[in-house]
């Protein structure tokens, strides 16, 4: 199953949000905090996330294709995949993948996409000189 949205930002901007654990609580509704020793994920990155209910769960990043995709496991189970596809120089399709049985998590993914779009839009406005 896949939930996706085209966001008005280049892939590099969105990759920075998706691949840097420090940003996960900003856009991920189910992540309240992250402990990770790496600034940007790579295959084999490990750490832990604190969920909305306060439980800390270990994670391990399994696959990384820089500025394109990454997958992870949380508490030993396959979790969401993260995909980026450039639409043009200023738009990117961001997709979260998940097993079909996890379809209720699609709501969380839709909220995450909205947050990513808002954050990317805020960054673009901040980078544009005022008239």
Question: Key features?
Answer:
single chain; seven-stranded antiparallel β-sheet; Alpha-D-Glucose-1,6-Bisphosphate, Chain A, domain 4; 40% strand; alpha+beta; 7 strands; 131 residues
Structural description of this entry:
The chain is built from three helices and seven strands; from the N terminus they run E-H-H-E-E-E-E-E-E-H. With 131 residues, the chain is α+β, with helices and mostly antiparallel strands. The chain has a single domain, classed as Alpha-D-Glucose-1,6-Bisphosphate, Chain A, domain 4 (2-Layer Sandwich). Strands 1-7-6-5-4-3-2 form a seven-stranded antiparallel beta sheet. Strand 6 and strand 7 form a beta hairpin. The mean pLDDT is 94.
Please describe the topology of this protein.
Layout: E1 2-7, H1 11-19, H2 24-27, E2 31-36, E3 46-51, E4 56-65, E5 69-74, E6 77-88, E7 91-97, H3 106-127
Antiparallel strand pairs: 1-7, 2-3, 3-4, 4-5, 5-6, 6-7
């Amino acid at each position: 199953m896949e939930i996706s949205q085209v966001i008005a930002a280049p892939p590099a901007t969105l990759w920075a949000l998706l691949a840097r654990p420090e940003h996960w609580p900003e856009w991920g509704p189910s992540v309240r905090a992250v402990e990770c020793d790496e600034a940007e994920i790579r295959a084999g990155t490990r750490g832990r996330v604190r969920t909305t209910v306060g439980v800390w769960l270990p994670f391990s990043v399994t696959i990384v294709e820089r500025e394109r995709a990454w997958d992870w496991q949380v508490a030993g189970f396959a979790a969401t995949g993260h995909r980026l596809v450039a639409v043009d120089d200023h738009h990117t399709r961001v997709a979260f993948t998940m097993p079909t049985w996890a379809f209720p998590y699609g709501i969380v993914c839709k909220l995450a996409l909205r947050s990513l779009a808002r954050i990317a839009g805020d960054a673009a406005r901040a980078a544009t000189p005022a008239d």
